[in-house]
Design brief:
The structure holds two protein chains of two kinds. Chain A is α/β, with parallel strands linked by helices. Chain A is built from two helices and six strands, in the order βαββββαβ. In chain B, a hairpin with a 4-residue loop joins strand 7 and strand 8. In chain B, helix 4 packs antiparallel against helix 5 and helix 6 runs antiparallel to helix 10. Classes of the chains: A alpha/beta, B alpha+beta.
């Protein structure tokens, strides 16, 4: 299955996402991949059954802006990435405070991997 | 005007699975909705990193109890792409057959639940009686009432004999005939229309902005169905999406009714064109690389990201199910509606919470 992937930075995430929103793209999802020393976040968008990915790398302690101000529907997956991976997503439109799936008794960030 | 807050769910007669909506009402009018999920999160993505990659076929089948076959199929497609495996034409047609009978089953189940939600019990029983024939077909061909372990990396484990093909065609034609008798009720009956027409309306612009998928997207006039990209053999079968334009609960129901007919036609055509040959080839080695796959489930677009690292274990397995994408659309549908309409509108996205939480 063919798809395009564009590499972007944490500084221009919002600008790039705004461009896709203006062009009528539908937000599909975001995928967080823990590369041990950093996170890769892949934002996927669709228009006319064509998939476009925006890929950004973020350090384990680096903040990444929420795109829920542009695509409100992204708030669920951003909460999930924050909760399960410990990705530092800032300004989520509806912040569930780490209680989307987990409770205070659970191990924090169960999907996160230890650095080698 | 007095405002009250009351939870809808997690246990509610209209919800087969636990989902909570914290709803604020002004008198009986909904003014705000906040979701609370997490009751059945099972950590399936994490388990996908701990199992050997062939074992994950059986794991992902358990993400959902209705679309099990399609979860296995998309996972196998992703692995086949990473490992550069080309499956046989017979396996592709069989995958379409199993996918379409799964879709017909899912939509018939939902149509019954919709009728039950607004108290039309005879319609509910009729839809489920028809669904039972499709479940019998699934058991006869796939081996179980839920199609499990039929799909494999490299093709299909459950091939069909000429006798099974003939029997399957007979059952599908019988289902179509019975459906013809009750479809006018869903399309034209006063009671059905009274409860669904104008309920939970979303415009074309709203569904795109909210990231909606499946019948929720197509019910608002957007002609998007992942089968349009021709995966497996949908291009050869000349697939066209079903679209309705009113954007309400009735429109979403009509999309599903028409899709049941379409699934029967596609399944019959797949059987008719089924090529000779093997259905399963052996796959050796370990996956090294990453890919994204999308297919169209009954509830909408299913998205998998798979990354292998050259070992038997995957580096990452990511699953985004259709209901996860449709929750923001549901939250936008409810404000402005009456309390009594909340169950029917909630059901109109065909929520599957097991899928959503994984």
């Amino acid at each position: 299955m063919s798809y395009q992937t564009k590499i972007i930075t944490t500084e221009n995430v919002i600008d790039q996402v705004k461009q896709l929103f203006s062009a009528g793209y539908r937000f599909v999802t975001a995928t967080c991949v823990d590369e041990r020393d950093k996170f890769r976040v892949i934002y996927s968008f669709d228009k006319d059954i064509t998939l476009v990915n925006l890929e950004v790398e973020a350090g384990k302690n680096e903040e990444i802006p929420s795109i829920s101000g542009v695509y409100l529907c992204a708030f669920l997956i951003e909460n999930e990435m924050k909760e399960l991976f410990g990705l530092k997503v800032t300004d989520i439109a509806v912040d569930l405070g780490g209680h989307m799936f987990m409770t205070d008794e659970n191990h924090p960030h169960p999907m996160a991997k230890e650095a080698e | 005007m007095a405002r009250i807050s009351a939870p809808f769910g997690p246990q509610h007669p209209v919800l087969p699975e636990p989902l909570q909506l914290n709803i604020t009402y002004e008198d009986e009018k909904v003014v705000n909705v906040a979701p609370a999920i997490g009751y059945i999160h099972r950590g399936i993505e994490k388990a996908g990193e701990l199992n050997d990659y062939p074992q994950n076929v059986f794991l992902v089948e358990r993400v959902c109890g209705i679309c099990s076959f399609m979860h296995a199929m998309i996972y196998c497609e992703a692995l086949e792409e990473i490992m550069k495996v080309e499956i046989t034409p017979r396996a592709k047609y069989l995958r379409v057959f199993y996918s379409e009978i799964s879709r017909a089953h899912s939509h018939l189940l939902w149509l019954g639940l919709l009728a039950d939600a607004f108290g039309f019990e005879s319609l509910f029983m009729k839809y489920w009686a028809i669904r039972e024939k499709v479940v019998d077909l699934m058991e006869m061909t796939g081996g179980h009432r839920v199609i499990l372990s039929a799909c494999a990396i490299g093709g299909i484990r459950r091939d069909l004999t000429p006798e099974l093909i003939r029997k399957s065609e007979d059952i599908l034609l019988e289902v179509k005939k019975e459906l013809d008798m009750i479809t006018p009720v869903l399309l034209k009956d006063y009671t059905v229309k009274k409860r669904t027409v104008g309920a939970g309306v979303l415009s074309r612009e709203q569904v795109i902005a909210l990231g909606a998928v499946g019948p929720t997207l197509r019910g608002s006039g957007v002609a998007e169905d992942i089968r349009m990209n021709g995966y497996e053999v949908y291009r050869e079968l000349g697939f066209e999406p079903v679209v309705e334009t009113d954007g309400d609960s009735h429109s979403r129901a009509v999309v599903r009714v028409r899709e049941v007919y379409q699934s029967i036609e596609l399944a019959l055509e797949a059987l008719h064109r089924l090529p000779e040959g093997e259905a399963l080839i052996k796959v050796k080695g370990n996956p090294d690389g990453e890919t994204v796959r999308r297919i169209e489930q009954p509830r909408g677009e299913l998205f998998y990201y798979v990354k292998g690292n050259g070992t038997k274990n995957l580096e990452r397995l990511r699953i985004r199910t259709p209901t996860f994408a449709n929750i923001p659309a549901l939250l936008a549908m409810l404000p402005g509606c009456q309390m009594a309409d909340v169950p029917v509108i909630t059901l109109s996205i065909d929520p599957c919470i097991s899928c959503t939480e994984r």
